[in-house]
Amino acid sequence: MSLPVFPATPTDTGITRQVLSHSPEIMVVSFRFESGAQGRLHSHPHVQSTYVARGRFRFFRDGVPYELKAGDSLVIPGNTEHGCQCLEAGELIDCFTPRRDDFL
Fold first, then answer.
1. Cα–Cα distance measured from residue 70 to residue 26, given in angstroms and rounded to the nearest whole number
2. Does a structural domain hold residue 46?
3. Lower CB density within 10 Å: C or N end of the chain?
4. pLDDT by residue (tens digit) across 19-35?
């Protein structure tokens, strides 16, 4: 059985998003960042976990900064303001529950 291939989509300056897999209960997404790119502060009802596959990032969760490097992860509860700044070009693998239908 062949799984659908989702194209990489530019989301903001220096950032692309690619849905890797999903079901109604969970979604796995790759975000690729150029150095200096910023994931703007935002919130959503979904619980999110982020895993740094490569690169270095400064995350902000409810105003608290966290510096993460390859191999680190962070959980972001639903409805929590968060964002990040890419300090060294890299990739984040994010899981959302439930699925982010706005990404499809």
1. 23
2. yes
3. N
4. 999 999 999 999 999 99
Q: Do you know the residue count of the chain?
A: 104
Q: Report the CATH number that the domain containing residue 65 is assigned in CATH.
A: 2.60.120.10
Residue 102 has φ and ψ, to the nearest 5°, of: -70, -15
- Is the four-CA dihedral 25, 28, 104, 68 of positive or negative sign? positive
Residue whose structure tokens are 């989702």:
6
Q: Write down the residue that tokens 């998003």 correspond to.
A: 17
The token duo for 21 is 């897999």
In this prediction the pTM is 0.94
Distances in whole angstroms, Cα of residue 101 to Cα of each of 23, 67, 87, 104: 10, 29, 29, 5
User: For the segment 49-85, what is each residue's pLDDT rounded down to a tens digit?
Assistant: 999 999 999 999 999 999 999 999 999 999 999 999 9
Q: How far is CA 65 from the centre of its chain?
A: 16
pLDDT category, 16, cuts 50, 70, 90? very high
What amino acid is encoded at 3 in this protein?
Answer: L
User: Residue 83 domain-assigned?
Assistant: yes
